[in-house]
Amino acid sequence: GSTESMEEKTVSIDPIQLDPKYGHEKSKLLDRLNLSKMISIPSHFHSNSDLNEDSDLQNALKILRISLMSDEELYFNSDATSSSIFEEEMRPITEMRTLKWIRNNLPLGAKIWAESKLASNSIRDEKRVKNRLRGESDEKILKWGEINGILLVDSVFLGEFEGTGRGIYCEKDLEPDSIVFKLPFNLVLNVDTALKSENGELFKRLINEEEVHQDTVTILFVLLERLKGKDSKWESYFQTLPKELQIGLTMPVGELLELDGLPLMHDIIESKEALRLIHESLFPRLSEDYPNLFPQDSFTFEEFLWARSVFDSRGFLIDFGDGTNQNTLLPLVDMLNTSDFPQLDGKPSLQVEDNAFVVKTICNVKGGTELCINYGPYSSRELLLNYGFVPEGGNQYDRLLLCLALPMDDLVERRMEILTKCGITLEHYLRDGPMSSSLLAALRVCVMDEEEIENAEKNLDTFNPNKEISKQNEEKALGELISNLETMEEEMGLEGSEEIELEMEEDDTKPEEEEEEDQEIEEESPMIKMARKYRKIQEKVLKSNVEQASQLLSSFWE
Predict the structure, then answer these.
(1) Is 471 exposed, middle or buried, given 0-12, 13-18 or 19+ CB atoms closer than 10 A?
(2) What is the DSSP letter of 181?
(3) Distance separating alpha carbons of residues 516 and 500, to the nearest angstrom
(4) Integer CA distances (angstroms), 66 to 334, 345, 397, in order
(5) Cα-based distances in Å from 39 to 34, 56, 91, 105
(6) Exposed (0-12), middle (13-18) or buried (19+): which is 2, by Cβ within 10 Å?
(7) Closest by CA position to 151, among listed 136, 137, 169, 173
(8) Cα distances (Å, whole numbers) of residue 156 to 132, 139, 331, 552, 556
(9) Which of 304, 296, 295 is nearest to 277 (CA)?
(10) What three-state secondary structure class fits 237?
(11) Backbone angles phi, psi at 345, to 5 degrees
(12) For residues 181 and 446, what is the distance between their CA atoms, to the nearest angstrom?
């Protein structure tokens, strides 16, 4: 909402509307930092003046960054005591959301400023096309896109790019809000498309009578359509899909062993086994009941795994307005690569009146630049699992999950009640940076003795575990933290890693055997390299927190 006066206008910000799940906490944070939920819009916001140092705009940025930040950023910043930390840029996705909000909701001058910032941000990760791809399937999918009205700008091509491989670019310069893709609903692949197909009644029966999940029905539909060959309207699209996908779910045993000791390895094994059980619940039964529709050699577990991997690596979770997310393939759009600083809006917008999805530019784009979206605030774990890569140059979204356990004694229920009343969870994140105060608060409650519990229960309204409870409690909490981190080190196979590093520093000459080993690594599969890179990232995050915990304990003893 907004109010106007003779001199200026104000726009209200509702964190709860922007973020129904965490909006209440963000609203409390804004109140605690004495930040208004009203953004002032002085008259100079309407003109194309220099707003880089403007105090009104800087205040608006702080309010918006808090209102639009991710749940993880909220987790690490919930104890902020000064609004000054929100004067600095936050993670790329939060910054992009903030700039897009300004562009869409504030007057011309602020809109121009936001578009300029979005454009300068996109240049940070700008990739120029090396050469245009002219393979038969490349040309065919572009022609299919033109015929079906998907490509709405001229000169969109597939090209080869440094670091990302195949991607999409436009030879011409593009202005902000240029529609690059307009994909009709009838050309997407999801459960709705399956239910409207010639086999829709069978799919409805599987969902309603046999309680088959809609994602499984979508997998069956995609495999059936691929079997049609030229009789499928998606034939050109299927020809662009790789015959073998390299993502976490498809890693063979030899590659999986590179993740030994990491939770990701167990997640992959469990996901693959769950998929196998789903396949066994359907086949060979469906092949026996419908031999012409589901030939057994075309619906093996390997084919089933391939289709599931296509959705994992290329699918979009889309809310069609009914509040339920559908895993959806968007042909051509799903060929866009990800970037922290994209040129296109990462979430295809629904144009219900046209029954289509639309993807627009968010800034000026120079011709020959790769067009990217942002897949989301994914850690390297999620990117390796679903997309088969680990980003070069670090990933701001990397983290480790630390699950605390309450001592199973007579006081366990009382400790749990205190945690609940204080809004503290037992699940916490570790990052390559300062620890969250929520983690230390949880540890303090976990190790409270009976007297400390009684004192907390008497004053629950004012009890604050973000502060030291007692010297004895603080020492026990830090000891418990170090114990948890040491356990994680052991499980990840990091024992003795510091000694190894010291040895390497003392003698950085490589024996002949090590040089041969390096040569072997160069010849190994890309997924093994990605797995090893991922392990190093996890080690780095854990080491950062081990050092912090040790420093905290040393300071405490001093």
Answers:
(1) exposed
(2) E
(3) 19
(4) 31, 21, 17
(5) 13, 8, 22, 11
(6) exposed
(7) 169
(8) 10, 11, 15, 55, 61
(9) 304
(10) helix
(11) -65, 125
(12) 53
Q: Under DSSP, is residue 552 helix (H, G, I), strand (E, B) or coil?
A: helix
- Residue 20 CA, chain-centre distance (Å), reads 19
- Residue 283 has φ and ψ, to the nearest 5°, of -125, 140
| Count of residues making up the chain | 558
Out of 40-44, 176-180, 199-203, the most confident range is 199-203
Q: Residue 505: what pLDDT?
A: 39
Displacement of CA 275 from its chain's centroid (Å): 23
pTM for this one?
0.86
User: Which residue type occupies 14?
Assistant: D
Residues 430 and 542: their CA atoms lie apart, in Å, by 7
Give the C-alpha distances (Å, rounded to integers) separating 445 from 23, 72, 434, 536.
26, 22, 20, 32
pLDDT tens for 455-488 read: 999 989 899 999 999 999 999 999 999 999 999 9
User: Nearest to residue 98, comparing CAs of 75, 123, 117, 71?
Assistant: 117
User: β-strand 9-12 against 38-41: which pairing, if any?
Assistant: antiparallel
- The closest alpha carbon to 135, from 167, 161, 158, 164, belongs to 158
3-state SS, residue 429:
strand
